[in-house]
Design goal:
The complex is a heterodimer. Chain A is mainly β. Chain A has no helices and eleven strands. Classes of the chains: A mainly beta, B mainly beta.
């Protein structure tokens, strides 16, 4: 089945530690996105990528980093500089950027601080 | 910058009845898209319906329809014949279709929790 796979489902981070969230898609989509969801709030864009080897900061990029070395993969690293990382993280992809191409979402990763 | 506001944190409806969720947005642009996404307890985001701003006709998808009032910057979602499986958080979202740094980026509202009672 085609879709977006996020792993792990749950992740725990110790103080001062970097952690990486995986996002893989087999939809042959060019554009990929990372969102953060906090309780009682909508999704906020962290980073997005229109094409391989290119990515742009979203609205809340501080403390996060990404790479896009392959079309299928867009991992997100939560660095120790992110002081409040506890949240639900969602990855999405679309054929290309633009409203005529809806974004498809993965099942999410819940990150907590130990 | 665009903003999206959902003023109803929670709503409830009886099974088989109709419910309307409200959404307002603020933008200076004329060319954009509006979306409603559904997030059930499983937490996966599912696209419910999409509206293109230049289309006057309101979008419909089976039991889901929108009331798009461009001048008022209002975009409400009507769910007819509500089913237990409609229980979820619903998000309204905006995307500009103009160029620039915001192109292709979704801006979400805070969400409305809808509970359908048997």
């Amino acid at each position: 089945d085609g879709g977006i796979t996020q792993s792990p489902k749950y992740l725990f981070r110790k103080e001062g530690q970097n952690v990486t969230l995986s996002c893989e898609q087999n939809l042959n989509h060019d554009a990929m996105y990372w969102y953060r969801q906090d309780p009682g709030q909508g999704l906020r864009l962290i980073y997005y990528s229109q094409i391989v080897n290119d990515f742009q900061k979203g609205d809340i990029a501080e403390g996060y980093s990404v790479s896009r070395e392959k079309k299928e993969s867009f991992p997100l690293t939560v660095t120790s500089a992110q002081k409040n990382p506890t949240a639900f993280y969602l990855c999405a992809s679309s054929i290309s950027q633009g409203g005529d191409q809806p974004q498809h979402f993965g099942d999410g990763t819940r990150l907590s601080i130990l | 910058a665009q903003t999206v506001t959902q003023s109803q944190p929670e709503m409830s409806v009886q099974e088989a009845e109709t419910v309307t969720l409200s959404c307002t947005y603020d933008t200076s642009e004329n060319n954009y898209y509006l979306f409603w996404y559904k997030q059930p307890p499983s937490r996966q985001m599912i696209l419910v319906i999409r509206q293109e701003a230049y289309k006057q006709q309101n979008a419909t998808e089976n039991r889901f329809s929108v009331n798009f009032q461009k001048a008022a910057k209002s975009f409400s979602l009507k769910i007819s014949d509500s089913q237990l499986g409609d229980t979820a958080m619903y998000f309204c979202a905006f995307m500009t279709n103009a160029g620039g740094t915001s192109y292709g980026k979704l801006t979400f509202g805070q969400g409305t929790i809808l509970t359908v009672h048997p």
